[in-house]
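Design request, tokens follow.
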């Protein structure tokens, strides 16, 4: 068998793959496991990306591989809407018991995060009989037409792709580094926009990431989320937590909402749920979820049996290895090392995040002016030195760290040393 090199594959790609689909690296993966990726040329990267917060249990986690193998030999697809199977039910049971809230819950399964968010909005509109959806500055919820409308950032997600879905309203976010407000003050500011510009009685749902992902790992000030959730419940609107990036132990709890004891009416999940297989879900209050008529929710592949088998194995692995505790430990190491780097490099304006979802925001020293050029340059040096990092943020000036939760201490340490060197040569 002739094995192609990354540069050969890359040359073919240009003639085969649409230009609009970008990639961070131009190296092509041959294999990946735990906290490392290897390309077809034999080069290795320490993985600080986890496929954008997906492989929380590690790439090709043994239990996931075994479960997928077993399922793929029994049957690959029947469509749950045609001939149902047990694993779909079992995943819903797991979600209903793992998500916050002691009340009766129901779940429905989909393929992607965007699809889950779309369905959460469908369900919220149906259950409330209202139309308006409130989202936030810097928010990210997907690339489909409705979720583009929910997503804040124009380039690259929305530019040229309009018109966007109506009845979507954007409120100001709590961004402690930049607004200096308490959670209560920031919530009052957002609620004022909602009541004066939308009208409380029109709001079907408030949709928010408990910690923003693509928007810059923005952690709202304490009290912001609880204040919005209690406003929603006092005004007949649903509080929808988009936990697609924060879920499944990433932030040191099963879900990030738990940190402030926020109990969402609906919660969207995807990414970390199935160890790399495409699966997403909406979970929430039984009376809200069950409001929709039979046949009103679904899709050909939603809750595919192979993805469900992978999800059950992933959830079991998270429990067995206590990956929430692992995320807290990783968060401790990252925060400590990054805080030391912040003392050394004045371009690091803030270290923030929770658990294994940590970021640094880079600005021109002594100011809050974003420095996306430096961020991009450090990123490139990290990639060349064998560390796979990702950037994010409305201004592209945030460096985020999302290692698999099974990453070894040694890999974590080597990765942070590469980052230090990259900052030293670039900053
Ligand atoms: N909600 C909070 O983080 C996906 C997007 C990468 P899908 N984030 C990664 C990119 O550039 O497309 C995400 C998210 C939150 C929704 C989504 C959407 O999930 O599975 O990508 O549709």
């Amino acid at each position: 068998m002739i094995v192609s090199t990354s540069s050969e594959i890359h040359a073919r790609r240009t003639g085969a793959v649409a230009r609009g689909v970008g990639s961070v690296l131009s190296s092509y993966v041959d294999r990946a496991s735990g906290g490392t990726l290897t390309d077809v040329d034999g080069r290795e990267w320490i993985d600080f990306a986890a496929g954008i917060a997906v492989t929380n249990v590690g790439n090709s986690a043994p239990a996931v591989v075994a479960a997928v193998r077993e399922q793929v030999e029994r049957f690959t697809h029947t469509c749950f809407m045609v001939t149902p199977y047990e694993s779909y039910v079992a995943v819903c049971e797991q979600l209903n018991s793992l998500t916050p809230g002691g009340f009766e819950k129901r779940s429905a399964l989909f393929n992607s995060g965007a699809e889950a968010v779309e369905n959460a909005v469908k369900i919220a509109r149906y259950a409330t009989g209202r139309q308006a959806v409130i989202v936030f500055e810097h928010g990210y919820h997907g690339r489909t037409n409705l979720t583009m409308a929910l997503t804040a950032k124009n380039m690259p997600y929305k530019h040229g792709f309009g018109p966007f879905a109506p009845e979507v309203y954007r409120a100001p976010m709590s961004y402690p580094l930049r607004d200096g407000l308490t959670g209560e003050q920031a919530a009052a500011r957002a609620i004022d926009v909602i009541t004066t510009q939308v009208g409380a009685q029109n709001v079907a749902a408030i949709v928010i990431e408990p910690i923003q992902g693509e928007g810059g790992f923005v952690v709202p000030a304490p009290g912001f989320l609880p204040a919005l959730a209690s406003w929603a419940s006092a005004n007949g609107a649903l509080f929808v937590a988009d936990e697609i990036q924060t879920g499944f132990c990433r932030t040191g709890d099963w879900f990030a909402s738990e940190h402030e004891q926020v109990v969402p009416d609906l919660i969207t999940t995807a990414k970390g749920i199935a160890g790399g297989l495409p699966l997403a879900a909406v979970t929430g209050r039984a009376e809200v979820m069950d409001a929709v008529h039979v046949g009103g929710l679904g899709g050909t592949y939603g809750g595919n049996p192979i993805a469900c088998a992978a999800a059950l194995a992933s959830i079991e692995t998270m429990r067995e290895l206590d990956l929430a505790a692992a995320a807290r430990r990783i968060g401790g190491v990252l925060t400590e090392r990054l805080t030391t780097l912040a003392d050394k490099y004045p371009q690091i304006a803030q270290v923030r995040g929770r658990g294994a979802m940590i970021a640094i925001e880079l600005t021109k020293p002594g100011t809050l002016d974003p420095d996306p050029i430096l961020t991009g340059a450090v990123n490139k040096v990290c990639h060349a030195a064998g560390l796979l990092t990702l950037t994010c943020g409305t201004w592209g000036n945030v460096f985020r760290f999302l290692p698999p939760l099974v990453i070894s201490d040694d890999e974590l340490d080597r990765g942070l040393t590469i980052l230090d060197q990259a900052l030293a040569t670039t900053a």
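Comment from the thread starter after seeing the answer: thanks! The chain has a mean pLDDT of 98.
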